[in-house]
Amino acid sequence: MELKLIIANIFAFLAALFMAGGTSLKTKKKIVGALVISDLFFIIANLISWSLSAAIVNTIAIVRDYMVYHKKFTRPLNAILITAVIAIGLFVNTRGLIGLLPIIATVQYGLIVRRARYPQLVRFSILIATLLWSVHDLSIGLFAPAPIYLMSIIIIARNLLQYRRPKRKASKRIARP
User: Fold this and answer.
1) Count of alpha carbons within 13 Å of 97, Cβ hemisphere only?
2) Could you report the per-residue pLDDT of 132-174, keeping only the tens digit for each?
3) 8 A C-beta contact, residue 20 and residue 155
4) Shortest CA distance to 67 belongs to which of 105, 41, 29?
5) Are 109 and 81 in contact (CB under 8 A)?
6) With contact defined as beta carbons under 8 Å apart, do 173 and 37 qualify?
7) Fewest CB atoms within 10 Å of the CB: 20, 64, 72, 130?
8) What distances in angstroms separate CA 31 from CA 93, 121, 127, 152, 173, one per listed residue?
9) What's the number of CA atoms in the CB half-sphere (13 Å) around residue 149?
10) Which of 53, 42, 47 is nearest to 14 (CA)?
11) 51: alpha, beta or left, given left = phi > 0 and alpha = psi -120 to 50?
12) Are the CB atoms for 47 and 31 separated by under 8 Å?
């Protein structure tokens, strides 16, 4: 394995650790904060492994996650970022069909995170994105994060079961005489 690919795998491994750890956090803000760090490491790994569409998608994802973290993520901004992910991602795609997986993963996450009121919706979206990204990364030779992806899928599934959506409060009804 060449040195460049080894270094890319180290960064991808660190990114996957932050992604997996982030899904165990209890609030949407903390989950998204961990994803910003994960995105930074994934950008480096994808640039080194020459997956430009993935690097661009992660760069745009940092902007999105930063805005979500600071509660400044609006519908128009989401539309702009999703359009940018699709347009720029397709333009710089150097990996064919495999290069489309990061774009799909990021678009679906962008659509979910904007509307998610509960952390488990964010976790579910991360689960879908993790599956898509794992296929992409394995296809381009980033094998180091594979065990973390598997653990992430298990952790996310556990967290989805553990942190169920809170039940709605029963509406106050006036008893009829």
Assistant:
1) 1
2) 988 988 888 888 778 878 888 888 888 788 766 555 565 555 5
3) yes
4) 29
5) no
6) no
7) 72
8) 28, 11, 13, 13, 37
9) 18
10) 42
11) beta
12) no
- Residue 3's contacts (CB-CB under 8 Å, 6 or more residues apart) are none
**φ, ψ of residue 24 in degrees (nearest 5):** -85, -10
pLDDT tens readout for residues 100-122: 998 999 899 888 877 777 777 87
Q: The tokens of 128 are what?
A: 């879908």
3-state secondary structure of 170: coil
- Residue 69: CA count within 13 A, CB half-sphere: 14
The residue to which tokens 């949407």 are assigned: 28
Residues 6+ apart with CB under 8 A from 64: 73, 77, 78, 81, 110, 113
pTM comes to 0.72
Would you state the structure tokens that stand for residue 130, as one six-digit string? 């993790």
CA distances from 8 to 48, 60, 69, 128, 156 (A): 6, 20, 27, 23, 24
Q: How wide is the angle at C-alpha 75 spanned by C-alphas 69 and 76, nearest 5°? A: 110
